Amino acid sequence: MIRLFDIILSLCGLIIFQPLLIILLIFGLFDTGSPLIFQKRVGYKLKNFTLIKFRTMKIDTLELGTHLVDNNKITILGHILRKFKIDELPQLWNVLVGEMTIVGPRPCLLNQTELINERIKFGIYNFKPGLTGLSQITGVDMSDPKLLAKTDYEMIKKINVYNYLYYILLTIATIFKFKNLKRKKS
């Protein structure tokens, strides 16, 4: 059922956001000369796949986790794309072709070995990587591999259609700073 939602939502997203994607491609050409990046990432069952994103950093930036990169490497357009999380929109293609899901653990770079090893301990790679998830909603990033792997595990052990849709809504709320969508603990 979740794969069906992935197909429908990613296809709708690519169609609805097509004008924005084209505009951002054009702005990206002026910003860096190369608006998209294609990075190898660790995916389902530890198989590598090529993730597509809008470029937010200067071309000469090393492939490191975002938390390790100097903020001066982020372009003017990159700051805007990151603020509204629209640098991730091209990954709707990765979702459509089945390399990713909308809700799942964020895929890491091949050189993030500490995170990869922590995720192996929790069986995270038995699930497809996602555009968003509990870590993004709660602000846990790749700077703390153990906490990130644990948070990913907490999400995937409870994933179902309801939580899938709920995490999508929470992601939208987080991006636009809506505070009243948080679920009350019972």
Supply the number of structural domains: 1
Which percent range fits the helix content?
40-55%
**Percent of residues in beta strands?**
5-15%
Number of helices: 8
Q: What is the distance, rounded to the nearest whole angstrom, between the alpha carbons of the first and last residues? A: 27 Å
Architecture overview:
The chain is mainly α. The chain has one domain. Helices cover 46% and strands 11% of the residues. It has helices at residues 2-16, 18-31, 76-83, 91-96, 113-122, 134-138, 145-156, 161-175; strands at residues 36-42, 48-54, 101-103, 130-132. Strand 3 (101-103), helix 5 (113-122) and strand 4 (130-132) form a beta-alpha-beta unit. Helix 1 packs across helix 2.
Secondary structure: elements and pairs:
Blueprint: H1 2-16, H2 18-31, E1 36-42, E2 48-54, H3 76-83, H4 91-96, E3 101-103, H5 113-122, E4 130-132, H6 134-138, H7 145-156, H8 161-175
Give a short overview.
The chain has 186 residues and is mostly helical.
Keyword list:
186 residues; mainly alpha; two-stranded antiparallel ribbon; 8 helices; 46% helix; globular; disordered C terminus
